[in-house]
Structures are given as structure tokens and as C-alpha cells.
Amino acid sequence: MDCIFCKIAAGEIPSNKVYEDDKCLAFYDLNPAAKVHVLIIPKEHIASAAEVSKENSALVGHIFSVIPEIAKKLELGGGFRVVTNCGAHAGQSVGHLHFHILGGEQLRMEMC
Ligand code: DGP
To answer: The domain containing residue 97 runs over which residues?
Structure first.
């Protein structure tokens, strides 16, 4: 499958990693929309939030259990936003489930 984030997860495309374990990977976004802008992805290919199911939702739970650790590491104590864009109307541009973690400054509503 020709998926950029699968290739990043496999190490075939380099990324600036901030966290990695056997199930997920977090790395800096190529086009940051905030002072701190990290993406966290499951290593398993899930196309979007619309493809989350009872079978794979534990991965999403795992990702959310790791986000506070990343926020602490990146010193986002002032607050942060977690966003996932799902489908064309939301402007999803990469068809592999990813959560944007945005912070490091006062966020405006359009920064998502
Ligand atoms: P979305 O629009 O929600 O699908 O967000 C996709 C994000 O992925 C977008 O902010 C830019 C980022 N992105 C796309 N390709 C790459 C890449 O090859 N490396 C990194 N680090 N980020 C990427």
C-alpha cells in the first residue's frame, strides 16, 4: 500500500520522532500549524477515524494514553489541542489515522 505514514512508521521515510513504541509513533508535522505540532499515528494502517472499530479501538486508547506523556515531554503544560481530520470535508490529506497535537502558544480555533 502506498501510504506515506506507513512508510514513516516503517522507517522508510525519515521523520523527526518524539515518541515511539511497538504500537504507535509520534513525529513533528512537516507543515507546523502551531509552535509545537506533532502527529501521533498507529503503526497499523487505519485509514481514518471512520475506520475505528471494536476490533482496533484499543490502539486509539493506547495513543490517548501516550499523549499526556508526549505533552509532558514537549512542555505543553499550558494546554494543548488534539485533532483528527476525517475525510474530505474535514480536509484529511493523508489517509492514515493521525492525531495532531498542537500547543506551545495560545491556539486559535482555526489552528486545527
Ligand atoms: P491532515 O490534513 O489532517 O490529513 O494532516 C496531515 C498532516 O501530515 C499535515 O499537517 C502535513 C503532515 N505531513 C504530510 N506528509 C508528511 C511527511 O512526509 N512528514 C511529516 N512529518 N508530516 C507530513
So the answer is: 4-111
d(CA 46, CA 90): 17
Q: Give the whole-angstrom CA distance, residue 101 versus residue 27.
A: 10
Maximal C-alpha separation, the chain: 39
Cβ neighbours, 10 Å, residue 93: 10
DSSP 107: P
What single DSSP character describes residue 97?
-
Collapsed DSSP state (helix, strand, coil) of residue 35: coil
Q: Which residues line ligand 1 (CB under 6 A)?
A: 4, 13, 15, 27-31, 39, 85, 91-94
**What is the tally of structural domains in the chain?**
1
pLDDT digits 0-9 by tens, 19-71: 999 999 999 999 999 999 999 999 999 999 999 999 999 999 999 999 999 99
Nearest CA owner, ligand 1 atom 15: 30
pTM above 0.90, yes or no: yes
